[in-house]
Amino acid sequence: MESGFEKDLVDALKSVVNGSNWQCLGEVDQLKTLKCRRVYTEEGDDLVLINVLDGKQFFVLDASCPHEGGPLDEGDIEDIDGRWVVLCPWHSYDYDLKTGQSSSGLVQDTYPVEVVEGKVYIYTDKSLSLQPRNTSQVTTDPAVISSTEVKENDNSLTYWAVKVLQTADPEDKARLTLKIGELWRSGEVTVIGNHSPPDQPSRDPQLNVVAPGKEKKRGKGGTQSSRISNLHSLANIEQWAIDLAWDIVARFTRLSCGGHSETDHTLDASGQQLPKEFLDDFIQVACDEAKHFLLLSNRLKDLDSHFGALTVHNGLWESARETEDCLLARLAVVHMVHEARGLDVQPKTLAKFASQKDEKSVDVLKVIYTDEITHVAAGLRWFTYVCQHHNPPLDCIPTFHDMVKKHFRGYLKPPFNTEGRGTAGMGPEWYLPLIKPQS
């Protein structure tokens, strides 16, 4: 039987629930059947409900990892020194379930959650549902490519771009990229061509490509297996980055930024040709990513492993699919959001490897960090160019904000590497307005 105090407490909580943003998600017995459960919102910035100790305690966080958008509802829950954390299934970033703090320096948003009379309540002004929205999914089939065919005697740039995208072996992909870069810089390749990129790059059939969140559990920090896992994950990112660079070369040979904001802004019908410097920049980006992949691949071999020893995901290609019809969106999301986020987390990653006395890996990561600053700068430079040459011209920063809100799910999350971003030319006016407003 309830005591008078307990009854008064329950009544008080009911009063709070009925008059605020507290929302009932369901019965404890129903919700405790999954350790991690995605809670869908109309806005698309979903939450994850996590229960520990068989439903005795619940936590709620944003579902998308602030690093690269990994699905935390598919992560592992661990008790680390008395703290419950969720590990992102993509890159093993850890988030304290109470505070949202990560050892990487990132912070994930958390939400108040209470259990009242056997029901779970979440405090948020978002419209919540346990039923998923209808969304298109990127295929996990590593062999999927379009029906695009290229002639073997073709020597155009887009021919070679498609050739890289259709090259399955990652080391062959990287070496072919470096060779094409040499041909372009030497003037042996000058014709742009008109070959269309595949829907999705080819992958080595020996590579175990899984859906995002289905990778094997990674080791804890401080061990060689953990370092191998992190390097392997970075190598996978670089493999996709090679493809993203060649895709932008093949796909956007002419200015295209339709579907901006609420109005269908399109360029004049002539389809103004992008200058050669655009291609110079993104071919260099592709070559940098190829160099990064080979450095990481060789480092894995030094550690008695190899790329392909662990499962990999294809989550980064979702951004390519989302922005395939809009150059402004591609530059904004891939180069000014994802690559800039890489700058944000790299100092912590470097510090971790340095603390483990892995100087060879630190040297590799320093090379990657320096190059990635130039990639963010390239994205910013050409985003500005396209805005200025749009008909009519667009205001760059508000347009960037519009593109991110439309094509990137969720908010940008601190901490930001203001020094690295600033070196790339991206001041806080570009990204601070995209963080979650304080309620």
How would you describe this protein?
This is Rieske domain-containing protein. It holds the Pfam family DUF455. The structure is a single chain. The protein folds into two domains: 112 residues, Rieske [2Fe-2S] iron-sulphur domain (Rieske Iron-sulfur Protein), CATH 2.102.10.10; 278 residues, no CATH class. The chain has twelve helices and 13 strands. Helix 8 packs across helix 10.
Short summary:
Keywords: 2Fe-2S, Iron, Iron-sulfur, Metal-binding. The chain is an alpha+beta fold. The chain has helices at 4-18, 28-31, 157-165, 170-186, 224-251, 276-302, 317-322, 327-355, 359-388, 396-407, 418-423, 428-431; strands at residues 22-27, 36-41, 47-52, 57-62, 76-80, 83-87, 94-96, 110-111, 113-116, 119-123, 128-129, 209-210, 312-313.
What distinguishing features does this structure have?
439 residues; alpha+beta; Rieske Iron-sulfur Protein; 2 domains; three-stranded antiparallel beta sheet; 12 helices; globular
Task: Show the helix and strand layout.
Elements: H1 4-18, E1 22-27, H2 28-31, E2 36-41, E3 47-52, E4 57-62, E5 76-80, E6 83-87, E7 94-96, E8 110-111, E9 113-116, E10 119-123, E11 128-129, H3 157-165, H4 170-186, E12 209-210, H5 224-251, H6 276-302, E13 312-313, H7 317-322, H8 327-355, H9 359-388, H10 396-407, H11 418-423, H12 428-431
Parallel strand pairs: 12-13
Antiparallel strand pairs: 1-10, 2-3, 2-11, 3-4, 4-8, 5-6, 6-7, 9-10
Helix pairs in contact: 3-4, 3-5, 4-6, 5-6, 6-9, 8-9, 8-10
